[in-house]
Amino acid sequence: MLREGDVVPRNTKKTGRNYQLAKQNLDQIFDKLPDPIFVTDQYGNVLLSNSTTALTLDMSLDQLLKSNIRDLVNKGYYTKSYALEAVEKKCVVKGELTTRLNFKQMSTSTPIMDDEGNVILVLTTGRTIDIADKCTSPEERELINRRKREMEYLRSYVLDTDTIVAESKAMRQLLLQAHAVAQTDSTVVLYGETGSGKEILAKYLHRHSKRAGEPFIAVNCATFPEHLVESELFGYEKGAFTGANAEGKIGLFEAAHRGTLFLDEIAELPFSLQSKLLRVLETYEVRRLGSHVDRKLDFRLIAATHKDLQKMTQDGTFRADLYYRLNVIPIHIPPLRDRPEDIVALSFKFLEDFKKKYGPEIQLTPDTLESFRKYHWPGNVRELRNVVERLVISGLQSDSSEQLVLDTQIDGIVSQYDYFRLAGLNGTLKQVMRALEERYIYQVLNECGGRIGEAADKLGIYRTVLYRKLKAFERERNAAK
Ligand SMILES: Nc1ncnc2c1ncn2[C@@H]1O[C@H](COP(=O)(O)OP(=O)(O)OP(=O)(O)O)[C@@H](O)[C@H]1O
User: Fold this and answer.
1) Whether residue 203 has its Cβ less than 6 Å from ligand 1
2) Residue nearest atom 10 of ligand 1, based on CA coordinates
3) Residue 333: what pLDDT?
4) Atom of ligand 1 nearest to the CA of 190
5) Would the CB of 303 count as within 6 Å of ligand 1?
6) pLDDT in tens, 121-153
7) Shortest-distance Cα residue to atom 15 of ligand 1
8) pLDDT tens column, 143-184
9) C-alpha 426 to ligand 1 mean position (Å)
10) 38, 45, 52, 246: which sits with the fewest CB atoms below 10 Å from its CB?
């Protein structure tokens, strides 16, 4: 951060490191733009674009980047192309067009010329026109408004999934490392406590890799019953075993073909399957259960765990050969309590997210933030997100009762006085029971220092059930957005 008296380097020469950084990250800069944008060559081939453009056309960014504008017009993705007109006329061309998903846009195409005045590139930007107001019939207006809401949702989805808060030095370095690693095809193991951000980082690696337009398949090895893991991973042929789907089923390895396979909780993979996984990673061939044919696949593997895999190899619970095959690039995500700068930045991010969703004017007081910084966060970022959401919902801010709620959350001191109101518990019995269940689970996790197995024992449930519940809490919140 700049302080008074600091000398700000002036932007006189376009040779500095930051300029190079900006140039190198042009793809990302494009992708952050909330409006459609693309660059084509003189033949109409799309060279650069962003996810928003792809969304208005109902296609993936990768598909778009392999397309030609003339073909897109011929196939009805656009009603017309100003980019092609700009090549012909050699001047800026503007006008309205409609995309396949019925988005009306004001499009501006600007040609970029070489020294001899030949068009070499065309930059096209679009602004979605608010046509809802011009519609007369209520049905038409409703349809368009619905499309707009869908578009807003997709747009925020595209932008939000990419947002990794990295304010602490440790996380910044980690993201730099991740960015470099994303460009390679090496196997990565993400180590970190539950809720510390392994999956969001795996998605980041995928989105910044050459596989970005292909599938990202996430599999939690702890949530499959042992007898199902093999058929889920490898798939099976028709009638391979009793109870199998009559049509057969494609496995998750195959589903990840050309993309990224994310194996979460890899330490929970049954020992018998570890050697099978190793074989796949050595040959990149899989054979469905009940089949005699090996299928050649191409995917990148990212694994994650909160356990010490190396120690497990010494204990004999994890195959050493698989460990060495997986552990090509280990990335360790520090627990949230070790990066207080992120606690604060994440709190603000989540507060903003939830304010958009729930709308109340709410602020985090310095006391709240201080108590956040001091807290142990056994459930890491996921738990912080939950706490901020509860705070926003209960609307308890800048008075003494808010501190009580936080104390309740953080130190397990339950005040009997008007507990339900202060804790923001209301609604149907089912809703209150669910909220209490979630809170209790996090309290026990806290008492167990974040150790899932121990917490599950204490709660009297299987660890797989506990995982499922934690994921379900998150899913429900996402669905409620
Ligand atoms: N640095 C971060 N910036 C923004 N959001 C984050 C960050 N880290 C984690 N989150 C959010 O916190 C929640 C938990 O993260 P995630 O699912 O990636 O954790 P995990 O380590 O994979 O958890 P588990 O071990 O339980 O599978 C998600 O909602 C995720 O989006």
Assistant:
1) no
2) 197
3) 97
4) 21
5) no
6) 999 998 866 544 555 566 666 555 555 554 544
7) 197
8) 555 555 545 444 444 444 457 888 888 988 888 888 889 889
9) 27
10) 246
ipTM of the complex: 0.99
* Site to substitute for ligand 1 among 382, 383, 442, most atoms within 8 A of C-beta: 382
Q: Do domains 35-161 and 182-332 have the same CATH topology?
A: no
DSSP 334: P
Q: Is 339 in the pocket of ligand 1 (CB under 6 A)?
A: no
- By C-alpha distance, which of 242, 344, 350 is closest to 289? 242
For the segment 67-80, the average pLDDT, to the nearest whole number, is: 91
Which atom of ligand 1 approaches the CA of 203 most closely? 18
Task: Tell me which residue of 160, 159, 173 sits closest to 342, measured CA to CA.
Answer: 173
Say how many Å lie between the CA of residue 333 and the centre of ligand 1. 11
The DSSP element (H or E) to which 475 belongs, if any, is: helix 463-480
CA distances from 211 to 63, 92, 253 (A): 12, 34, 15
Q: How many Å apart are CA 78 and CA 19, to the nearest integer?
A: 35
Q: Is 164 in the pocket of ligand 1 (CB under 6 A)?
A: yes
What CATH class is the domain 182-332? Answer: alpha beta
CATH of domain 35-161: 3.30.450.20
264 in contact with ligand 1, CB cutoff 6 A = yes
The predicted structure's pLDDT at residue 160:
45
Q: Name which residue sits closest to atom 28 of ligand 1, judged by CA.
A: 382
Structural domain boundaries of the chain? 35-161, 182-332, 336-480
Specify the pTM.
0.57
Alpha-carbon distance of 99 to 326, in angstroms, equals 44
Quick check: CB of 195 below 6 Å from ligand 1?
yes
Residue 413 tokens read as 């001191």
Q: What is the DSSP string of 291-303?
A: ----EE---EEEE
Percent of the chain with pLDDT over 90: 28
